[in-house]
Amino acid sequence: MNRSRSVPPGGSGGGGQAQQSAVTKLAFLAGGGGGTGKGSGGLATVLNTRGGAMIMKSVSIFLASGRRASAVPRDRTKSGERGQSLDRRGQQQQQQQQQQGGRLRDSRRNRKILARMDELNGKLNPKMLEMYKRRTHFSKIEVEALCKIFRKLVTNASLNSKALAANNAGVIAKAGSSTDGIDRSVFRELLHSTFDIVTEETLMERIFCAWEKGYEGLPIRLEGWILGLSTFLKGTQAEKTAFCFRVYDLNSDGYITKDEMFALLRNCLIKQPQDEDPDEGVKDLVEIALRKLDMDKDGKVSFQDYQEAIAEEPLLLEAFGQCLPSDRSTVSFLSTLQAQEEST
């Protein structure tokens, strides 16, 4: 009769080993030590080593992910703060630039207004007075006298325009005539009565248009009045040559062509009743002028041709009609300015 042997507690049977292994795992996972048996001690050591490594790795991963998770909001916060700070700085700089630009525009506008007021009153501040003295052949006293003459001409033209409008119901006074400068009608009268320029209508118009470069055909401003008279009365040979060329270059293309010569000379000739074809005489004069002035022989007169020809023969300066004052009128006008200087 077979009797089963009882396994004493703490024996080396398989159930005890399994139970001890399970206890060892639980104890390890719970943080306890290893088993006391010889067989279980090796397993516990192995489990302890492997489990510890796994737990340390898990803890490291957890802590690293936690650091990254906490760092991202901080980085985002910092970058957001930096972005907001940059935006605020950019807005402040933009506002400062806009304010500075506005102040500059206001300053320029004010300077223009003041300069315009000075121009209308015929007065100049010291800086403008010195600038015109440097740019012209006039003294400061002469510049001041020219400013006064300019003011009188503009004021008289305005009063005449208003008087004409008052006496004639069909005539409307030119708006702002006192602020536009010297118009062509006043200028033509001045050329004729003050500077002894007696010429035909086309040339009168050309002198007016060429007077102030860049403002062709517009009323003459104070600046154009002073600079133009500097050339007109005291200009060098080069300055007068440039002015006369602008007058004769009817279409302002940089050349005096045959057609322009014909138009200028035709009105200068006195037609005789016995002349069958007066234009033939004008054509002959055009050919003579070309031979004298067309230095490169291309059939038209450039500014360089004109300069070279005038340098050789100064009498050709006004070959196509008078556009400079007579010597007598120049002396008379300058003596008036000098008298103003002496009385000051």
From TrEMBL:
EF-hand domain sequence ranges: 236-271, 281-316
Short name of any one Pfam family annotated for the protein: EF-hand_7
Keywords, comma-separated and alphabetical: Calcium, Metal-binding, Repeat
Claim: Membrane is one of the keywords in the record: no
Keyword tRNA processing: no
Stored InterPro entries: EF-hand-dom_pair, EF_Hand_1_Ca_BS, EF_hand_dom, Recoverin
PROSITE patterns: EF_HAND_1, EF_HAND_2
CDD domains the record matches: EFh
GO molecular function, one term: calcium ion binding
Ranges of biased composition (kind: Low complexity): 91-102
Disordered: region residues: 1-20, 67-110
Compositional bias (Basic and acidic residues): 73-90
Classification via PANTHER family: CALAXIN, CALCIUM BINDING PROTEINS
The protein, known as: EF-hand domain-containing protein
